[in-house]
Design a protein that fits this description.
alpha+beta; three-stranded antiparallel β-sheet; 2 helices; about 30% strand
Length: about 70
């Protein structure tokens, strides 16, 4: 059994669940989109290069590491 500790960040966009960013202790990060977000053809655009990501990094103290 893998004993990695994880941290989970719930991601919302305009009040709707987008998914979760899961950070493992070893530095690996996984972005998991919610099924409801994936299935919505009229969903808002989401981009990891958006300016809001810098505020997320500041809030987390740059602990996000590289996004895998």
């Amino acid at each position: 059994m893998n004993a990695d500790q994880i941290q989970v960040l719930k991601l919302t966009l305009h009040g709707r669940l987008l998914g979760y960013l899961i950070g493992y202790q070893a530095g690996k990060n996984v972005l998991s989109f919610a099924d409801s977000f994936k299935a919505d053809a009229n969903r808002s655009a989401f981009n990891l290069a958006s300016p809001q990501l810098s505020s997320v990094r500041k809030a987390l103290g740059n602990t996000m590491g590289k996004i895998a």
